[in-house]
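Human: Respectfully, please carefully check these tokens:
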Amino acid sequence: MKDLILDQVRGTRADYLEIRIEESVTTSINFQGPKLETVQDNMNFGGCIRALVKGGWGFIAFNRLDDIPRKVETAIQQAELIGRESSEKSRLAEVPVVTDIVLANPIVDPRSIRLPRRVDLLGAYNEQILSYHENIVSSNVRYFDRATRLYFGNSEGTYIEQEKIDMGANMSAIAQKNGDTQMCTFGVGTTRDYNIIVNREPAVEEACRAAVEMLDAEPVKGGSYTLIADQHLAGVFVHEAFGHLSEGDNVYENKQYQELMTLGKEFGGKHLNVYDTGLDVGYRGYLKYDDEGVQTSKEHLIREGELVGRLHSRETAGKMGERPTGNARAISFRHPPICRMRNTCIENGSATFDEMLSDIKLGVYARHSRGGQTDGEMFTFIAAEAWMIRDGKLAERVKNVALQGNVFETMRNIDLVGNDFRIKDSAGGCGKGAQMPLPVSHGSPHVRIQNVVIGGR
């Protein structure tokens, strides 16, 4: 494969040329209620070619290795046609030339576990959910594992082979009573150890108990509250509401974002630090090299409340005169890489959970996330679980907690950052530019936020 790729990218008339080839096997298992809906193995093989000429990109994807020279010529011709209409020059930030082979080295490779054993384990969790309580009316247990081999070479001389393992599972309990439906989900994910899914009965039971208890909870009364967000919800917030605004293509292509995301701008107090990293081995956001062959790193986005960085591909870094960060990622060979997050986190602080609670007269403690949406600097998130805080103590459970607001105001209103950092993974992923679900992770300690608008009853 190395000779095939490097022979085609050498001596090109394009300003830049790369070839990426991918082979993968994905196993999927899905229980819906009492029924085993899916057990399947999918094998994918293909590749893509990207060419850059005078600022114009050509891209072609393929499933066969025959006639690669013709495919290269097609990509170059596309780039020439687009470049002919552009007044830009090709601008890619310089990066070291690399030759490397990256092995997955899993602790327990999911492929080493026979498929019937994987099905039986997921089936046992599914039965645990369905038998937990009479108000549990259905379940959704979803599992996948994927083994991938990537081959990458470019006209600058870089050649990299990477093995990747990715797996995840989500287990949802769905409860119903008097026309009200509540759901709670437990999820795990990893890039190196099948055992992360084993012996999870206590966590599944907790999800079941939460779904049933929420049926009898009262909806939260809408208003403005002091909010404590747990590690999962705070991580989702920093990924969705802030992380996407930090992606270089979003900033470069949007003048409003350029004004909002000016480096040096104050986004919070000295206790607020946010970063994105590809270096956390074992988590789904881990990768040694991105899909442009750039070695990943830990990039601070906010340091002591000040915006200090953003997430780049080689092109966005070149156009903005900044440093490439190893954030060019593609969901598969069918797509070109674009600026994407990896593991996006709020850094550990010093406050304890009890300190956060102690001086709250009336507030809300929210855990986990049931989804949400962002629109520029505005966001709405739904908490999976929540409790009222009264006189410095956790009180009754509430439901239908929707958090709304402006991301920049909300970040400035973070007044305490906890000392209990945790990274969260699940079977989901990030979506952008028709590429979903891309494996990412997020992490945070508990955080306390003043004046959060919460919609409910």
